[in-house]
Amino acid sequence: MTVEVLSAVGRYDGLYEVIGVKKPGGRGCWCMSYRDSRVADEDRAAFMERECGTEPGPGVLAYVDGEPAGWCSIAPRSSYRRLMNSRTIPLLDDDAWSAVCFVVRPRFRRQGLMHTLLAGAVEHARDHGARLVEGYPVESETPGRVDVSSGYVGTTSQFERAGFDRVVETTGHSGGRVRWLMRKEL
Questions:
Q1: 5-25, pLDDT tens digit by residue?
Q2: CB-based contacts of 105, cutoff 8 Å, min separation 6
Q3: 25 in the Ramachandran plot: left (φ > 0), alpha (ψ -120 to 50) or beta?
Q4: Where are the domains of the chain?
Q5: What does the buried/exposed string (b/e) look like for 109-145 if buried means 16 or more CB atoms within 10 Å of the residue's CB?
Q6: What is the DSSP pairing of strand 97-104 with strand 132-135?
Q7: Of the four listed, 88, 92, 180, 183, which is most buried by Cβ atoms within 10 Å?
Q8: What's the whole-model pTM score?
Q9: Secondary structure class of 140 (helix, strand, coil)
Q10: CATH number of the domain at 3-185, out of 3.40.50.300, 3.40.50.360, 3.40.630.10, 3.40.630.30?
């Protein structure tokens, strides 16, 4: 199995395969929750297509043997409108890049792709001049399994394995689990 993590710039078709085919007509989240939730469902695909046309792009894609398999939304925190105005996730450094969402297609799960995506996302940020990357994962030490719908933000253990440090427990939650602000200096 060959895995590559590549910028989403110029790879809208791959992005569509990973996050766009979830609902008929390509409707759905499209990783817009933090970016700009005011964008209407029917306009989200076009918005992300434009994002895939300019540097630094909206994130990175994991390809397994050439097939789009996963996604990580990573960009300067300042590009996430809702995150900049969040009441639950504090703003500590407006120069940080933020990894806010992970999606792995079902048949590629349980193969470590989220770890690979996070490593690729950090490299993508570094390649674009980032000095600091943040994530806002759920606490993974809480007993019980992290379900797919709340695990899209990643887990604290995943981020710790990638060299991130816990900075502050946020007042945000996902799936009933506490979310942490975690950072990695580059």
A1: 999 999 999 999 998 866 555
A2: 17, 18, 68, 69, 70
A3: left
A4: 3-185
A5: eebebbebbbbbbbbbbeeeebebbbbbbbbbeeeee
A6: parallel
A7: 180
A8: 0.91
A9: coil
A10: 3.40.630.30
